[in-house]
């Protein structure tokens, strides 16, 4: 029995080696023990463990701080391994920037290892509202790789819209500006390094997705509040690490285009078909991955929400 278990563990470790070598997440050092883990910009797949997003690792003498916990227990284990490799320390704190599956469904694994999960109360409320649906949507993608994954949340959510935290001697802030991709999305701000882990406030290299839960008007306001911090670097939720100009080019300008255009048609109650026909071609953003797949749907959902608010 022992030999069979040892052999199974060895074979699993061999399968994991290509993943740990960087096939899924590329590491970018941002200085002073801060790292971005940059995932693929395409869809969630079995091969990428649902880690088609960006994450962060911050080194402290007492342990690693992990920004977002992955979409599953297995994904969390991959993030843990990368954090240990980068810092030589186990993950002691996990901060959730949002409520989409790869932001938080690895929480239970880290809590079982003794890590503290940190999130705003408004973020946790959205996680709770979407947990069942997210797990069901991941099941056909991840299959057995979803085994052992269960919803878990911050034990003591932060009731305020932000807080300054000192973790292992590192000072950082968790900030809520306005509802963005999901209600309750947050930014992790490192004032000394002037680095912002923007979560799903910012998409780079690929078009952002406007979901039924998204509000383009408040998302744009949140983006402007983030930009007002004047970060040196922004780690977007998806895509390459960037600066404020890059974030504005790929996210801020697009949100402004959608919000202003859809509002004009919604104010006139012109109908979703007319809005999509007029705004469905946006050449400045056609260079972004997923443009053809997402843009017209983004216009439609933005219009319908604004029309309902009339």
Please characterize this protein's 3D structure.
The chain is built from nine helices and eleven strands. Residues 1-21 have low confidence and may be disordered. It is of the alpha/beta class. The chain has helices at 2-23, 73-87, 101-104, 107-112, 121-142, 216-227, 244-267, 272-279, 291-308; strands at 26-31, 34-38, 54-58, 64-67, 91-95, 116-118, 162-167, 170-175, 187-190, 195-203, 233-238. A hairpin with a 2-residue loop joins strand 1 and strand 2. It has one domain: Ribonuclease Z/Hydroxyacylglutathione hydrolase-like (Metallo-beta-lactamase, Chain A, 4-Layer Sandwich). Helix content is 42%, strand content 19%.
